[in-house]
Amino acid sequence: MTSKIIGVSDFPDAFLTKRTASGMGQMDDQNDPVNMILGLKNVRKAAHNCAVFQSGAKPGRIVIPSEVAIRETRQIPFEVDPPDHGGFRELLNPWFKRPLDEGYQARLQAIIDETIDSAFKAESLDVVSQFALPLQSKALTLLLNTSMDKAQTWIDWGTHVFRSEDSDLDSDKANILYDYIDEQIENAIAIPGDDLYSVLLNSEANGKKLSKEEVKGVMILTFAGGRDTVINAITNSIAYFSENISDLKRIDDEPEILNRAVEELIRYFSPLTQMGRVATQDTSVCEHAIKADTRVSLCWASANRDEKVFKDPNNVDFDRKVNPHISFGFSHHNCLGATHARQILRQLVLSLANKVAQIETIKADENIEKLGDFSRKVGFNSLHVSFKSK
């Protein structure tokens, strides 16, 4: 008889000591140091001040770990600052708000139901590779408005399109994505359809028709930006409910708390730890000097545990009345795919509440990020569970 796995829902605050002592941390990233902003107020302030803390630096540099070595294409609108950023957002927002449509949600629900029903049939399964990854990939077909059969290709890529077991920056793996997108763009030029590629190729932003390189930039962001983050959110939520099944039952009994519960799970787990910016001039944060052309981190995960803002920040509280979390970023560059991600979580959590009686964790391999002196649990490399239906 195996002993019960416990503690999988614990995600300690890796930044508490530094946040309370100075509000700042430091880490090195490929010999391009990063000053980490840790408090919610200062993270929001820096995120809003794109004139001083820019996103439009060299492509790949604002990502942590930096993707400068493996990417020359600028991700759009992620790596574009105002005023041009606004033109791209105006074009893209209606498309990325489609998850709010009833028809979209019905198709998403069919994917979720199939995923859960398959989990019931298995004696056990790895939530990362056999549940969250297929669910994320199949849901992405809805966002791109393309055929479901493409999902298997994306599943075969694994949980991250730029990283492998051996490297945080795998150029060979990244090139698979780039070549795939180039091929899909050429296909859309030859035979236009109603998919996202075709729509972008026939669209304008900021008074100009989008170039193939700009379309590629949007698509790289779409594939990379919402992949491991959504997988983390799904997996971590299941880990939480495996040890807090009464909270899942409560959602079944009180579906009116669903949105509040999902926002709290997203705050607590913060599926993306941080995102960078590059200083355009000498400045300071928390009395810490920031030199021009150096990087800062907007540390979402630390800000979401800021004890000055959140009561009992290290507890999951579905009754939290004030929850200004920034898991999807803040201000101009808030996450383009937030509506899609939220809708997946809302429908998944409600479906789990309706269908699942128990989740038992069998084996867990935690995914620990090494960030200078910090070590943060961001999710799982694998999480083997068994689902019991009602």
UniProtKB/TrEMBL annotation:
SUPFAM superfamilies linked to this entry: Cytochrome P450
InterPro entries: Cyt_P450 (IPR001128), Cyt_P450_B (IPR002397), Cyt_P450_sf (IPR036396)
Pfam families assigned: p450
Gene3D superfamilies to which the protein is assigned, alphabetical: Cytochrome P450
Family the UniProt entry places it in: Belongs to the cytochrome P450 family.
Protein name, entry field: Cytochrome P450
Protein species of origin: Pseudoalteromonas fuliginea
